[in-house]
Amino acid sequence: MASLRCFFRSGRNAISVVLRREFHKTSPATLQVTVRDALNQAMDEELERDERVFLLGEEVAQYDGAYKVSRGLWKKYGDKRIIDTPISEMGFAGIAVGAAMAGLRPICEFMTFNFSMQAIDQVINSAAKTYYMSAGLQPVPIVFRGPNGASAGVAAQHSQCFAAWYSHCPGLKVLSPWSAEDAKGLLKSAIRDDNPVVVLENELMYGVAFELSDEAQSKDFVIPIGKAKIERPGNHVTLVAHSRMVGFCLDAAAVLAKEGVECEVINLRTIRPLDTDTIEASIMKTNHLISVEGGWPQFGVGAEICARIMEGPAFNYLDAPAIRVTGVDIPMPYAKILEDNSVPQIKDIIFSVKKTLNM
């Protein structure tokens, strides 16, 4: 009898192993990947795929990047593909734009987009306008990327969000990823695009890990530029955000769900071109709109969204005025308690939802 029980037990174990194998064959594999590593994977795969791609910027090579986003790339590709530059944004941005005009596909890293102000003439006058001014004869396939918006304890000169600034300019595409999937798929699309693309990352998101699906782990994975993603469906209010604020909106939505309020959270992913269709379709379902961003209110991304909704077919579906949740209209303070009160918090989003729903 003992031998018989062992036989059946071993048979069950064998069946269990087979079932587990079959399950893993058919179910999508997921992997925890930080935003930093997702960006690194995207650049690595595109450097390997296309010999015209190269990376340049301050400390991107031997130091592995100020935020370790380019970790290991210099050792793998060498000095000709991963290039350390002097502290001169106007200089190395100009070199990158010239290289793009000559047929290469540079990735130009700014240590923070606040420092891109030194190079904005190159980004706008040299890169953004050339394709149009040449009647489509001279593409400028370049990516400008780096951390954007508020970090922590770095005060005013390192904390500005430039999403509205750069998305104001025709000729540029402007991307603002939130998750690891966003970071990898959008950056790969940006590198392959024949237009100049600004990729606005967030320093506080670099170390945050997300599940990366089997599809997103593929070297062929890209996310279309100009298409938003509904991160959480809902039918009471539409929350529209980009970058780090997407996570804040999801956290606020989780709290509000316990009170019976279902928020639809839209991750813009792309600031220019803006996916107005997805926002309008959501408003037609929820009848309420709140935009959330870390930047300043005046002439911001939220202001543009509100204007488009007012001018379009979704306006007639609104049951309450659209509300903007933004950073405070001041230079970023250094003190933490003042800093926390200068950028949107989860409680601010919850308050705005309840206000627009008259709760």
Structural features, described:
The chain is α/β, with parallel strands linked by helices. The protein has 2 domains: 31-213, Thiamin diphosphate (ThDP)-binding fold, Pyr/PP domains (Rossmann fold); 229-356, 3-Layer(aba) Sandwich (Rossmann fold), CATH 3.40.50. It is built from 13 helices and 14 strands. It has helices at 2-26, 35-49, 73-77, 89-101, 120-128, 130-133, 163-167, 180-192, 244-257, 276-286, 301-311, 336-340, 346-356, and strands at 30-34, 53-57, 82-84, 105-109, 143-147, 173-175, 197-201, 209-213, 229-232, 237-241, 263-267, 270-272, 289-292, 323-325. The strands form 3 sheets. The chain has a 7-stranded mixed sheet with strand order 3-2-4-5-7-6-12, sandwiched between helices. Strands 9-11-10-13-14 form a 5-stranded mixed sheet, sandwiched between helices. The longest helix is centred in the N-terminal third of the chain and has 25 residues, at 2-26. The chain is globular. Residues 1-27 have low confidence and may be disordered.
